[in-house]
């Protein structure tokens, strides 16, 4: 261990040289600042830093050519520079090929959400595909973003491009991010209107729906904790009533009871015209939402609301327990459906 003391000229001028090899001393005022003293009496300031798992010693200069205060002041900049990744300069790559790398390594989405993202990319960013990513300029980005109608999608594409170019810089395919300093598009993000009091009204509105199949489909938006695309495309062969699972995803007790009461006379659980599964019953849903007094409520709002309340667990059995406990808490607690006061869940 290095000897520790407050570096000052008197002490450093009178430090004895070791008989052989070198000694190391450490400054108390700036603990990252240290000094070698060799057997020939050479005194050198240095900084010791662990960089990406390796012990690194960075020389500042010899004393007294380098003043003590100058050495202390240099420490912070040295630590910042040492922490920076060594830039890697790779061969040129097209935006499309790098985009494939980005999607494979950085994007984690469900199948439906992933396909939706791909459609948006192909529609709005296609003009960048053949350009080398290192040669794309801020003007190119502004042209692409400016051609998108609607602030919401334009803002999301801007955020996506920001992330893509940051990754390109980290990977060494671009020297800098052309979007640095670009003004962020203001988005009027939608406020989801559902809360617990509204959920109770929604349950009553669903119960008033005449079609048993639609009632069950809409109830599954609450009971299954799955997006509508997965619910409406349920096939009987994918349901495992012995283990209360659907394609590996745990189902609540309420969902199981509801599904078992449905007639199993076809391939799909929720059928539509022409023998297809249910796609998007928006007319019926608007009717239900209006009855619940939440006319701007979407089916996705219900899924998002339920998922926000759920205590996620990686173990499927634990997750199923959490799902059942949440539904019990929602539906078994004392509630006043006639109250005009809506309390937003935290």
Question: Between the first and last Cα atoms, what is the distance in angstroms?
Answer: 52 Å
Helix content bin: 40-55%
Q: Which structural class do you get from the secondary structure elements?
A: alpha+beta
Query: What is the number of beta strands?
Result: 8
Percentage of β-strand residues? 5-15%
Low-confidence stretches: 334-346
Instruction: Provide the residue-averaged pLDDT.
Output: 87
Describe the 3D structure.
- The longest helix is centred in the middle third of the chain and has 21 residues, at 151-171.
- A hairpin with a 2-residue loop joins β7 and β8 (249-250).
- The protein is built from 13 helices and eight strands.
- The chain is elongated.
- It has a five-stranded mixed beta sheet with strand order 1-2-3-4-5, with helices on one face.
- The protein has three domains: 3-83, Integrase, DNA-binding domain (Double Stranded RNA Binding Domain, 2-Layer Sandwich); 95-171; 196-332.
- The chain is an alpha+beta fold.
- The chain starts with a strand and ends in a 14-residue tail after the last helix.
Concise summary:
The chain is α+β, with helices and mostly antiparallel strands. The protein folds into three domains: 81 residues, Integrase, DNA-binding domain (Double Stranded RNA Binding Domain, 2-Layer Sandwich), CATH 3.30.160.390; 77 residues; 137 residues.
């Amino acid at each position: 261990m290095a000897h520790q003391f407050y570096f000052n000229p008197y002490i450093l001028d009178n430090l004895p040289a070791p008989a052989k090899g070198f000694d190391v001393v450490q400054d108390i005022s700036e603990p990252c600042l240290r000094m070698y003293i060799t057997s020939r009496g050479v005194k050198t300031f240095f900084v010791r830093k662990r960089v990406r798992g390796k012990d690194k010693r960075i020389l500042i200069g010899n004393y007294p050519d380098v003043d003590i205060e100058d050495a202390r002041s240099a420490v912070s900049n040295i630590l910042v520079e040492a922490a920076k990744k060594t830039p890697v300069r790779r061969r040129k790559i097209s935006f499309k090929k790098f985009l494939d790398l980005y999607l494979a390594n950085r994007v984690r989405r469900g199948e439906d959400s992933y396909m939706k993202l791909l459609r948006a990319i192909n529609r709005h960013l296609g003009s960048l595909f053949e350009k080398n990513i290192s040669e794309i300029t801020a003007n190119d980005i502004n042209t692409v973003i400016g051609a998108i109608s609607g602030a919401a999608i334009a803002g999301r594409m801007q955020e996506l491009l920001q992330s893509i170019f940051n990754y390109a810089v980290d990977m060494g395919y671009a020297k800098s991010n052309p979007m640095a300093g670009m003004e962020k598009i203001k988005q009027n993000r939608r406020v989801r209107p559902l809360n617990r009091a509204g959920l109770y009204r929604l349950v009553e509105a669903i119960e008033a729906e005449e079609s048993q199949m639609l009632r069950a489909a809409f109830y599954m938006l609450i009971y299954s904790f799955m997006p509508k695309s997965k619910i409406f495309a349920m096939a009987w062969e994918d349901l495992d009533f012995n283990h209360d699972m659907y394609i590996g995803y745990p189902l609540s007790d309420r969902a199981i009871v509801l599904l078992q009461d449905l007639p199993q006379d076809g391939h799909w659980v929720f059928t539509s015209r022409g023998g297809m599964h249910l796609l998007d019953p928006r007319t019926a849903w608007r009717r239900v939402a209006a009855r619940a007094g939440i006319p701007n409520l979407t089916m996705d709002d219900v899924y998002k609301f339920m998922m926000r309340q759920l205590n996620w667990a990686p173990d499927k059995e634990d997750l199923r327990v959490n799902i059942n406990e949440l539904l019990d808490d929602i539906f078994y607690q004392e509630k006043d459906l006639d109250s005009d006061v809506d309390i937003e869940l935290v």
